[in-house]
Design brief:
Low-confidence stretches: none
Shape: flat
Helix content: 40-55%
Bound molecules: FE2/S2 (inorganic) cluster
Largest sheet: 4 strands, mixed
Number of helices: 7
């Protein structure tokens, strides 16, 4: 995943601050990774490299911990977060088809973020609305009885919003240029 302008510097500063706070003893690796993720929203590979260098441990060990525990996310959260429920009820009602539809439409796998960082996709355990299965949580909104057509509809809504806000921005810029 490509970093955005200024992001590398921000990562470096945050990691530095966390390392100063926790020290570089190896037993602190997990709390350090947790704190870095709290601050950045994910664990960029650049952060893991920096941690490995400072703690003088092999990079592969830091990656190993980052990938072993599912509390850690290795991709930045998207502007819109799509969580497909894979609890028993949703799975029985075709949750995997819904997940598959999102993966195809967004061209990413679950656990990933689109290159423009608009969407991230993940599977989650039961969100507690089994009667509405299959369920998808889009940002904070619960979508019930989702079908592949509804997947298209959800993404289309965001597409239209994005176009609208782009047009409004263009009009503002035109207006301010006069
Ligand atoms: S299994 Fe999906 S809401 Fe319970």
């Amino acid at each position: 995943m490509e970093l955005q302008p200024g992001e590398l510097e921000m990562i470096r500063n945050e990691v530095e601050a966390v390392l100063q706070r926790y020290g570089v003893e190896r037993e602190n690796l997990i709390p350090i990774l947790q704190e870095v993720q709290n601050r950045l929203g994910y664990l960029p590979k650049e952060a893991m490299q920096q941690i490995a260098e400072n703690m003088k441990i092999p990079e592969i060990d830091v990656y190993g911990v980052g990938t072993f525990y599912n509390q850690f996310r290795l991709n930045p959260p998207g502007k819109h977060q799509i969580k497909v429920c894979m609890g028993t009820a949703c799975h029985m009602m075709g949750g995997h088809i819904i997940l598959d539809s999102f993966e195809r439409r967004l061209n990413i796998k679950e656990g990933e973020t689109t290159p423009d960082r608009e969407f991230s996709l993940e599977r989650v355990a039961c969100v507690g609305c089994c009667a509405l299965a299959p369920v998808v949580v889009v940002d904070e909104k619960v979508e019930s009885k989702v079908s592949p057509i509804r997947v298209d509809g959800i993404l289309l809504t965001f597409e239209i919003e994005k176009q609208k806000s782009g047009e409004e921005k263009g009009q503002e810029e035109e207006g301010s240029g006069q």
